[in-house]
Amino acid sequence: MSIKLLVADDHQLFREGLVNLLSGSNDVEIVGQAQDGNEAIQKAKELKPDVILMDIGMPGVNGIDATKELKNSLPSAKVIALSMHSDKQFINGMLEAGASGYMLKNSTYNQVIEAITTVNAGNKYLSGEVADIVIHDYLGKKKAGEDEQVILSERESEILLMFAEGFTTREISDKLFISVKTVGTHKQKILEKLNLHNTADIVKYAIKKGLITLE
């Protein structure tokens, strides 16, 4: 029986190319596509896919928030992050949100099929490069000991991405249902932890780390 798959990615050319590629597999049945996090949530609830390939940096609801929502409302669905972001903050964010796998967009066709079948069977999947990042991060935390506090929290990572994507403090407050003051507090902690000074520095940091692209 084929694995029902939903593909969520805001880059239409990449998304449709991936769908066309995977449609040739006997192991996978493409049941739908989504161009942002909101549509991914809606279509997943409607189509009940077995596995969802989820981009992270999508407009509206990002992949981390969409994964959290789906794991609450559709816990049987397995989410695989398929992203160009190799930063540990986003790997950790997706895994903490409930994703069963994480792979980069430079993965091969066979690796994507392997990831889909692996998580559908109830196992975890990390592509080689991602696994190295997770292991080195873990070992680094053990070695650093007291330096562990420099790692951003899940909420701080979320707010960092939103500022980098151009959201204002008020817009972030409204979207996350927290006060403007709380957003400001998180922002100040982000700046202090990363040794940055303002929103422009956050954007530069996000670009440097590959969290956003200039498009």
Distinctive features:
Rossmann fold, 215 residues, 6-stranded parallel β-sheet, 2 domains, 10 helices, alpha/beta, Arc Repressor Mutant, subunit A
CATH superfamily of the largest domain: Response regulator
How many strands?
6
User: What is the mean predicted local confidence, pLDDT?
Assistant: 86
> Uncertain segments of ≥5 residues (pLDDT<50)?
144-149
CATH class category label of the largest domain: Alpha Beta
β-strand percent reads 5-15%
What would you say the CATH architecture of the largest domain is? 3-Layer(aba) Sandwich
Strand order of the largest sheet: 2-1-3-4-5-6
Number of domains: 2
Biggest sheet descriptor: 6 strands, parallel
Helix/strand order: EHEHEHEHEHEHHHHH
Report helical residue fraction: 40-55%
Structural class, from helix and strand content? alpha/beta
Coarse morphology: globular
What is CATH's topology name of the largest domain? Rossmann fold
| Rg calculated over all Cα atoms | 17 Å
The end-to-end distance, rounded to whole angstroms, is 40 Å
- The number of helices is 10
